[in-house]
Amino acid sequence: MAEPEHTSDGHFVIINGRRWRATDPEIPPEQAARLRALLMAARRDVGAALRAQDAEAERDARGRVHLAKTALGERGDPWWEQTTSQRRQRWQNGLDALEHRDTRRG
C-alpha cells in the first residue's frame, strides 16, 4: 500500500482530499504495529456489535478505537506539542490499557 501524502510539516496526512492527523512517527515500529493491530480489531468489533445490535459491546469497541487512536497520536493533545517523555508515556499507557482489555476479552 502506498504511503499517503503528508502535509509539509508532517503533522497530517491527506486522504481523498481530507486532512487527518498523522500517527506519531516516534512510536517504535513494533509498538506502532501492535497498536494498529489492536485498532483494526476494535474497528472489526464495532462492526460486529452494530450487526448484533449489542450497545454494550459497541461502546466497549468504540472505547478501544479511541484508546488506540489516542495512543497512536491521532487524537488528544497533538504529538508535536508533547515532549519525548510525554509521547512515550502516551503510547505506552495506551498499549498497556489495550492489551489488558484484549486479554480480558479473549
UniProtKB/TrEMBL annotation:
Q: Where is this region: Disordered?
A: 81-106
Cite the record's Basic and acidic residues compositional bias ranges.
97-106
- Which protein are we looking at? Biopolymer transporter Tol
